[in-house]
Amino acid sequence: MPETSDRKDDHIRIIEEEDVETSGAGFADIDLVHEALPEVHRDEIDTTTTLFGHELAAPIVIESMTGGHPNTTKINRALAEAAQKTNVAMGVGSQRAGLELDDEELIESYAVVRDVAPDAFLYGNVGAAQLLEYDVADVEEAVEMIEADAIAVHLNFLQEAIQPEGDVDARGCLEAIERVADGLSVPVIVKETGNGIAGETAQRLADAGVDAIDVAGQGGTTWSGIESHRAAAVGADRQEEVGRLFRAWGVPTAVSAYEAAQVHDTVVASGGVRSGLDVAKAIALGAQAGGLAKPFLGPAGQGTDAVVDLIETLELELRTAMFVTGSASIDELRETEYVVLGRTKQYIEQRSH
User: Per UniProt, where does FMN bind (predicted)?
Assistant: First the structure.
């Protein structure tokens, strides 16, 4: 099996078997102000939202995780079937393996999502570093592979720096993103992979014409930690140590969502989002939706029903948060009062000076 494909299998195994979680996303520092007289019926609260003209039943995104190895087909099938049943958004993992390796089995690990989710909002995924080699037509291939409604361009340079075989040339990526955002047939989302996007970078992306920003901040799964485990397995001791050192590097998700929402009107908050309450807090901070990755991985291994069950739990947690803030709609939740405490408050205040 080629190197890119094997790496996908390694990543899933490490996430399932090792401790690759970090704390500090910042949601614990966000308190939504309680409304003792909500004057709404909980069951009539409207959790729907619109993403690029596509109405979702709830502002929940099954974040990009995997694809590119035969073992990942089952995972993507369960996630996509659940997205179809519950009408939430879903992204696939990097499609590099599908684009660069002429292997029907690998392509099927991605294409399965549209086969089982004909109506769901699905987005594809390519790396910013690969855009230096791809033209717009190559990215259109990724769109066609899953009949994508949008494409995510992922920024993962810390992860690449830890990988023994990583791509560490980040020159020209913003210009390449701008070229794709201008020429692609579907909207372009730029997403980090666990280290966040600071306000200044969000502004540069907004100026480049990207359609959405997924902050994927510090505080959830640590790809630096994952690559540290991979480096250890091949005896790359120096990379293993650097991976451990940068395990908790990045802009906390709550801070990143707040800053990005100041300069772009379509922000997805991911990175350490672990409940519907976290999704509610993200929306209060200005995000359009909240995204989760690792929490869906275990259920996806069990099958579609387990994924649906988690989505329904998240939706009830979100609905409850809306009820006790008196928010009858997502637009009202976006205007709800909140208090910022602790490290997150200090971070935002220091950054605003």
Answer: 64-66, 94, 125, 191, 221, 272-274, 293-294
Residues 148-204 pLDDT 10s = 999 999 999 999 999 888 899 999 999 999 999 999 999 999 999 999 999 999 999
Q: How far apart are CA 87 and CA 49, in angstroms?
A: 11
- Any binding-site annotation on 230? no
CATH no., domain 4-350: 3.20.20.70
- To the question of whether residue 66 is assigned a binding role by annotation, the answer is yes
Annotated binding-site residue? 94: yes
Q: How far apart are CA 227 and CA 239, in angstroms?
A: 8
Comparing 21 with 102, which gets the higher pLDDT? Answer: 21
**Residue 322 marked ligand-binding:** no
**201 carries a ligand binding annotation:** no
8 marked as binding residue: yes
Summarised one tens digit per residue, pLDDT across range 266-293 is 999 999 999 999 999 999 999 999 999 9
Other C-beta atoms lying within 10 Å of the C-beta of residue 81: 22
pTM for this structure?
A: 0.95
256 in a labelled binding site: no
Query: What integer pLDDT is reported at residue 52 of this predicted model?
Result: 96
Q: Any binding-site annotation on 262?
A: no
203 marked as part of a ligand binding site: no
Q: Is 293 annotated as contributing to ligand binding?
A: yes
Average pLDDT over every residue of 75-79: 97
d(CA 216, CA 219): 9
One-character DSSP codes across 84-138: HHHT-EEE----HHHHHS--HHHHHHHHHHHHH-SSS-EEEEEETGGGGT--HHH
End-to-end CA distance of the chain: 51
Residue 294, annotated as binding a ligand: yes
- Distance of alpha carbon 69 from alpha carbon 226, whole angstroms: 18
